[in-house]
Amino acid sequence: MMQNDEEPYTQPDAASDRQLWRRSCVMDAPEDEVARFLDLAAFADGLLEAEEHDRVAALLDVDPDAAADVRAARIPPTAGPTSADLEKVVARACAILPEADLSRGRVVVFVPRQRRRLVQHFAQWGSIAAAIVVASWLGFAMGSDTSLALSPPRQPSDTGTLPELFDPPSGFLRDLGEGLRT
Q1: In a domain, 102, yes or no
Q2: Torsion of Cα atoms, 148 then 149 then 150 then 152, to 10°
Q3: How many domains does the chain have?
Q4: Which of 33, 67, 77, 79 could crosslink 60 through cysteines, CB 3.0-4.6 Å?
């Protein structure tokens, strides 16, 4: 609601504002998983500021799996993982979907691509060529029109030969002589 000059100014209700603030502090916001992973990656790379570093360190104290991931990320790539590390990774990946039965598998057969007809092939490439030709012509025409519009207008020239052919001056017939006029 907007205040106008006729209405007196009233102070906001401080008690309800305080109650709303307390309620918002108590509420749990859903954790953003992407932001959590970005925080863990920045912590592993040492790119966090002091306050953020302390916050993520507290999060790692509570979550041992995340702490193990951060420790694994800090290992230099030249050291290479051991077979025990790889077995742990596979075990953790299998634990994601415990209800999946690994003995039951389903083979997905990919259907081989059918050969396209020759007409469809030529129609496809012909349409691409036609589009290139039309775009080139349109670009040339627009460029020519723009060039003509931006250039200074030409003044008609009296010394040219083309205007004399279509509109001869009055002295032309006089110069031919008497014998040639008839």
Answers
A1: no
A2: 70
A3: 1
A4: 67
